[in-house]
Design a protein that fits this description.
Transmembrane segments: 7-25
Structural class: alpha+beta
Strand order of the largest sheet: 1-2-3
Number of strands: 3
Radius of gyration: 31 Å
Order of helices and strands: HHHEEHE
Organism: Ruthenibacterium intestinale
Number of helices: 4
Helix content: 55-70%
Protein name: Stage III sporulation protein AF
Keywords: Membrane, Transmembrane, Transmembrane helix
Number of domains: 2
CATH topology of the largest domain: GMP Synthetase, Chain A, domain 3
Low-confidence stretches: 54-68
């Protein structure tokens, strides 16, 4: 109840201040610009409790997410990345005419860098061809395990 009383008092004072300032304006060229500024002042004053309460709510939500644990979040990100990389690599292999199932396992080092831990390709194609294509595609010497 006290907050409501404080809000009504603040809005009333903003309206009174606006009215007094409008009385001091004498030229008609300045009236439209000044009225706009004063109207915005009243709106900001009237909406300040809404903005303050929504800001507090957002901050509480962020703190809850931060408390959820960085390890779980890191594992989830790695899992999604593994699925996306596997799907992209399967599409690239299919574009080259190689039907394959790809399984990628990523690991995160202590420094925060993500590396490929395991790359398994299940295919009936020539393993050397698959290895060389993947290494050329990723421009790195990643170890590829091919299973027929």
């Amino acid at each position: 109840m006290e907050q409501l009383r404080q809000w009504v008092l603040t809005v009333s004072l903003a309206c009174i201040t606006t009215g007094i300032l409008q009385q001091f304006i004498s030229t008609k060229k300045q009236i439209s610009g000044i009225k706009l500024v004063l109207t915005l002042y009243i709106l900001v004053t009237a909406l300040s409790p809404v903005v303050d309460s929504s800001w507090d709510w957002q901050m509480e939500e962020v703190s809850v997410v931060a408390d959820a644990g960085s390890l779980d979040t890191q594992q989830e990100i790695l899992s999604v990345s593994e699925q996306n990389l596997s799907g992209q690599l399967e599409k690239e292999l299919l574009a080259k005419g190689i039907q394959a199932e790809v399984e990628i396992q990523l690991k995160c080092s202590e420094s925060g860098e993500v590396e490929v831990d395991q790359l398994i390709v299940k295919t009936s194609a020539d393993p050397d061809t698959v290895r060389s294509y993947i290494q050329a595609l990723w421009e790195t010497d990643v170890e590829v395990t091919c299973i027929s």
